[in-house]
Design goal:
With 511 residues, the protein is mainly alpha-helical. The protein has 20 helices and two strands. It has a domain of 286 residues.
Length: 511
């Protein structure tokens, strides 16, 4: 029995699947990993995933291209390169270092042990930032090589996490600012925050989950038979019983489940009271309506009526969310000081460009550029990840962002194909929309600096860039052609299916 059945426990893909499931579930539990101890646990788990990934590589997806490997290597090594030591005389002449070199000279820091310094202003902070890259990198490399079915199951795990966070946020909002369900986080007493410290970061998770739920909802609507079933009857040949068969109990329950998931995520997102979150939820609904309205069930099973109904429901949702967004947007975004922080960050970028100040050094560097008319203490984040990365890492980040946009646009051309869509194709399109929402949200926040959201973003990137589906179509065509060839080899005397038997070629009624 053991010789004929595969050992699932030893399957590299199964080990990665369960390891990724555990990491995804753990990521948001303790302040979304935004504390040293949970981040350390995530980094150790990421190391284990990477070791297993390269020791026992799975066979579920196509290998990454050289360009993709170069992108990942550059992303991972850029902070490490800032730890390279250079002579103090050279370091003092690097962009932005003259001010600090003068301070070191005035402090009398010279002599043995100080002739060399790392390029980064604060090497320890750069080491921490470099190690924080391990979890999202490991999640991407592990997930992108799983099978599409394993990724579909992981998407369900991701949606379960999002629904749990949304329900916890709704309980927090309804139970008041001193609720025990706030888990000791009373900073966001007027809104839902889940296990996150900041409501905007919970909104970041939910806005990524919303298009995934909508994609699976659209994919499961109206299926009366499996997508791979043979036969292709036209709409004119459908009987009333066949139309009723499309509303089978299993399919209705599945579609209703994803509908409930989507509603829970949307409500949780609304009660975070995040202006960016609600605005991006409206954009998600608009994009999903535009992209999926002609693909209900994978092949638009309800025709024009289904398309118009989907568009109507999407527009009604937007109309219902518009007053909510307007209520949250009554406060001028400029009043919260973000534009002043942006200006200060741009000044700092000009000071340290093109090498950057060092990964993880934003908070300490911006003390020099703190706006005089901005009251308060230390500015710990730029509230714009792109500006913060440019300040810390420099020109190389600009190149990485440009390369990412090229990869992203190119992958849409592979995902958006004609013909009937499988559920995984819907999930890929939903992941592409989710990534777009996160790219927009990080213009006004620092979601990607939160370890849990960085891990979820990396997972959705792996789903979006997964390419196993492109090989399944030619494999299926080849599989359909192979049985005839096998039959001809095993039974050379057997007639072909399309050949008329010799005995039937004679007319028995002929004279």
């Amino acid at each position: 029995m053991s010789d004929t059945q595969p050992n699932r426990a030893a399957d590299p893909g199964a080990v990665l699947f369960y390891g990724l499931s555990a990491l995804l579930v753990f990521a948001p539990l303790f302040w979304a990993g935004n504390r040293p101890l949970p981040l350390l646990v995530m980094e150790l788990a990421a190391l284990a995933l990477l070791v297993w990934r390269f020791w026992q590589p799975p066979q579920g997806g196509r290998p990454l291209s050289r360009a993709a490997w170069a992108f990942l290597a550059l992303l991972f090594l850029a902070p490490l390169a800032q730890l390279a030591p250079v002579p103090l005389s050279l370091w003092a002449n690097l962009p932005g270092r003259a001010f600090y070199a003068e301070a070191l000279e005035q402090a009398g820091v010279s002599g043995a042990g100080f002739e060399w310094r790392a390029i980064s202003l604060i090497p320890t902070a750069t080491e921490v930032a470099w190690l924080a890259l391990l979890p999202p990198l490991a999640v991407f490399l592990a997930a992108v090589h799983l099978t599409s079915q394993q990724l579909l199951r992981l998407v369900l795990v991701f949606l379960g996490i999002a629904v749990s966070e949304a329900l916890l946020g709704l309980i927090q909002y309804g139970d008041g600012s001193d609720s025990v369900f706030r888990l000791g986080n009373f900073l966001m007493g007027d809104s839902a925050s889940g296990t996150y410290i900041n409501r905007n970061h919970l909104a970041g998770l939910l806005e990524m989950a919303l298009p995934m739920g909508l994609a699976l909802l659209i994919a499961t609507v109206g299926h009366g038979r499996p997508p791979h079933a043979s036969g292709n009857r036209g709409r004119r040949g459908r009987t009333f019983r066949q139309w009723l068969a499309r509303f089978s109990v299993a399919r209705l329950n599945q579609a209703a489940l994803f509908g409930a998931v989507t509603i829970a995520i949307l409500l949780g997102l609304i009660f975070t009271r995040s202006r960016a979150g609600v605005g991006l939820a409206m954009l998600a609904i608009l994009l999903c309506t535009a992209l999926f309205s002609t693909r209900l069930g994978g092949r638009n099973v309800y025709g024009l009526m289904g398309t118009f109904t989907t568009i109507g429901v999407g527009l009604a949702s937007l109309i219902g969310l518009a007053p909510i967004w307007n209520r949250f947007a009554l406060q001028d975004p400029a009043e919260d000081g973000r534009w002043k922080i942006f200006d200060a960050t741009v000044q700092a970028i000009g000071e340290f460009f093109p090498l950057g100040s060092g990964a993880g050094t934003f908070e300490d560097v911006l003390r020099r550029f703190h706006p005089m008319d901005l009251p308060g203490g230390t500015i710990n984040r730029a509230h714009n990840d792109y500006l913060e990365w440019l300040l810390e890492v420099g020109l190389i980040v600009g190149l990485l962002i440009a390369a990412w946009l090229i990869f992203y646009v190119r992958q849409w051309g592979r995902v958006w194909v004609r013909g009937e869509w499988t559920p995984f194709r819907f999930v890929q399109a939903g992941a592409g929309i989710a990534l777009l929402l996160m790219m927009l949200h990080t213009l006004v926040d620092f979601n990607l600096r939160i370890p849990a959201n960085a891990v979820f973003t990396a997972f959705l990137a792996a789903v979006f860039f997964h390419r196993a589906q492109e090989e399944e179509r030619p494999r299926r065509r080849q599989h359909r052609e192979e049985p005839n060839a096998v039959d001809r080899e095993s039974k050379p005397d057997a007639p072909l299916a399309h050949t008329v038997q010799p005995v039937n070629q004679v007319n028995p009624f002929a004279e």
